Amino acid sequence: MRLSLIVPCYNEVDVIARFHQALSHELAATGRPYETVYVDDGSTDGTLETLVKLAASDDAVRYLSFSRNFGKESAMLAGLRYAGGDAVVIMDADLQHPPELVGRMLEQYDRGFDQVIARRTRTGDPATRTLFSRAYYWLINKWADVELMDGVGDFRLLSRRAVDGLLELNEYNRFSKGLFAWIGFESILFEYENVRQADRKSRWTFRRLFEYGLDGLLSFNNKPLRLAIYVGLLMTLIAAGYAVWVIAVAVLNGVQMPGYVTLIAAITGLGGLQMVMLGVIGEYIGRVYYETKKRPHYLLKQSNMDPADHVQKPPAPGGRTTQGR
């Protein structure tokens, strides 16, 4: 059984050599043939030059380099397209995904699981971030068509048929957490202690987390659009009831001067509500706009891999791998 490791990289020049050394040590201990596919997502700090040196000194190293920064989702997709292993592990290069867990994943793969998922604990995370995260997963699991597990990211092992399933999903706006859940297959989860790098600052700002969460909310359901219908109907009923009340008061007490504050508050509130609803509709229209363009997810600038490797392998009938085990 051949193993492929997919490692997206963006400005990781200060840690990539340490990561590769630790990963190679763990992979050698498994006694299985492997390849490590590094995907340079348009780094500007010398990451590509480091990967070229690693490839020159290690025959198991493959690398792909994008023409610019296309994002982690595109980097993972490129790695999946080029990976040739019967099993594929996706992990980050910043050592927050411990390389020593790869052996544990392989043990579960040998038991027949198509997805072996590593979920980090929230040890050391700020209490506010933990609270918002749990609230987000509670909300999205109420709305989304697939179930997302709290604390689960991209660190996982995938069988060949799971990889082939992912490669059949060609949408431009990719939300891998949802895609992993959508393809299904037999899965198992285990937890590991959160690893925090004291000398590295997280790139996930509140704004990026909010936008990422919004992508997840809109990628796997159309319930916000349906909610807009319900809210519109509710506001229509409220307006009708208010009109009946105004008429009744006018009949009983005569016409009085309308309340200025009430009028301004109603106009402002309804105007804001309409803008929110238009924003929701605009998000969906924007996604359709990008999908219809059919632009490539990324452009390669440099690689040491044969373009012939960029071939989607058809799943074997009733099997877990196209290459046998």
Structural overview:
- The chain is of the alpha/beta class.
- It folds into two domains: 3-205 and 296-309, Spore Coat Polysaccharide Biosynthesis Protein SpsA, Chain A (Alpha-Beta Complex), CATH 3.90.550; 223-293.
- The protein contains ten helices and eight strands.
- The protein has helices at 16-30, 47-57, 72-82, 102-110, 127-143, 160-167, 176-183, 206-219, 223-253, 260-293; strands at residues 3-9, 34-40, 61-66, 87-90, 115-120, 152-159, 187-192, 300-303.
- Helix 1 links the parallel strand 1 and strand 2 (34-40).
- The longest helix has 34 residues, at 260-293.
Key descriptive features of the protein:
alpha/beta; 325 residues; 10 helices; Spore Coat Polysaccharide Biosynthesis Protein SpsA, Chain A
Total strands: 8
Which residues sit in consecutive blocks of at least 5 with pLDDT less than 50? 312-325
Question: Whole-Å distance between the termini?
Answer: 5 Å
Give the helix proportion (percent range). Answer: 40-55%
Instruction: Look at the structure and give the mean pLDDT.
Output: 76
Radius of gyration based on Cα positions = 25 Å
Structural class: alpha/beta
Largest sheet: 8 strands, mixed
Strand order across the biggest sheet?
7-5-6-4-1-2-3-8
What would CATH call the architecture of the largest domain? Alpha-Beta Complex
CATH superfamily of the largest domain, called what? Answer: Spore Coat Polysaccharide Biosynthesis Protein SpsA, Chain A
Give me the strand/helix succession.
EHEHEHEHEHEHHEHHHE
Number of domains: 2
Supply the number of helical segments.
10
Instruction: Return the CATH class of the largest domain.
Output: Alpha Beta
Beta-strand percentage range: 5-15%
The name of the CATH topology of the largest domain is Spore Coat Polysaccharide Biosynthesis Protein SpsA, Chain A
Outline, from the CA principal axes? elongated
